[in-house]
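Progress against Task 2.4 (sequence-to-structure conversion) is shown through the following example record, which the project officer requested during the mid-term review.
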Amino acid sequence: MYTFESRVRYSEVGVDGNMTLESLLDYFQDCSIFHSEDIGVGVDYFNELNQAWLLSAWQICVNRYPHLCERIVIGTAPYEFRGFVGYRNFEMKTESGEVLAYANSIWSLMDTVNMKPAKPNEKLLKVYVLEDRYPMEYAPRKINVPADGKEREPFRVLAHHLDTNNHVNNGQYVRMAMEYIPKDFAVGQLRVEYKSQAVLNDMICPVTAVNEDGTLHTVSLNKEDGKPYCIVEISGQR
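Structure tokens generated for the chain above:
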């Protein structure tokens, strides 16, 4: 497993002094970028090919959020290629080996000119060394959206929401969704299904729902026609 070490920064914690869910997701996303850059297939490499890995789904499970200044180790490993789809696990540990969080992710390799699927070339299949799947309970990729959702005030995509692909960054959708989750809600699992790409000045039309006991929140970040850009499901800690 590819790993890098870090220390929880003040900018990454919430009012309780613990790392936020959004920062944890950023660590996992950064880890995949570091891994690809270090094995020679980073952003510049894919730009030359007019290709990009686009995230299709997240499943992040949290045992404990690390504290301010706590030292952590973040790791990732791909475990399967299936056509143009790649699968990758993540883990965050303490220096002593306590597992803080772990995740599964599903990615699609896309031709960025024609926006069509692209199969990994021989170099990618060689440098992305596959490892065993992480021992976790894997959730389905698709997320069910309750029919009785509440429509919220639409808002516009701004420049700070975008990444190097000029569309809304994966983590930004989660930040948007977290605005509709109670501030004291302890998130134990995050699932995200990415459906299409929002770009600058697109309107996001949120629809939110919560189950009867308040332990499961669903936020569908929709287009103006009601079709989702992204669906976020957030479960409480057990």
